[in-house]
Write a structure and sequence with these properties.
It comes from Candidatus Nomurabacteria bacterium RIFCSPHIGHO2_01_FULL_40_12. By secondary structure, the protein is α+β, with helices and mostly antiparallel strands. The protein has seven helices and four strands. 19% of the residues are buried.
Length: 230
Amino acid sequence: MDNKFDWKKYLIVFFITAGLFATAYYLSEYFGGRKVEELKSIQDKIAIDILSSETQFSLLSELSCKNISDSVFSGQLGELGNKLEWSQNNLGATEEVSYLRKYYSLLQIKDYLLTKKISSRCGTKASFILYFYTTAENCSECERESLVLTSLRTKYPELRVYSFDYSTELGAVEAMLKIYKIKDTELPALVIDDDVLTGFHGIEELEFMVKKSFKLQETKPLEENKKSAS
């Protein structure tokens, strides 16, 4: 009797465990699929934003530069970058995620070229950094550099940071690597005002460079703004 009871107990535990595993797998696949679909939707919206910016430049090319918006860089590009990072961490290097990363790189290059074109047309100086990185396995300092650049962008919202994975198999990215002579042994690498910096650089050094090159205004924390207003 005891043996029969033990077998029943083990079978019940087995079926409960199998059921939980199957449910977890289904939910993972379901929400993973929804996330990829959401990425596709954002990707399409960003493509329209970039095309809209190009069309806007064509329409306003004969008018005063004051009519051309400074905010060429779509805020959705940053949103897509965050979602791509989430997908890479949670879905792995799937074919879909790899495709979206390439598309994201192309959109960044397109925005970079458009920004330079408008700067040339209007006689202004665009504030941007080109950042080349690779996986943590092949670049021990890339993650630290990414955190520094994130802090810098938070402090100076006008500053654009275009990030490119060195290992991306994309002709446009490879062309940029050749233009700036970036080598995989010198990552992380930054391009600031046409100067190429290799290896890790701290926030104090980079902040000095961008303020000197682009004359950026630091964004005050919300609490400081409230004190100034009062």
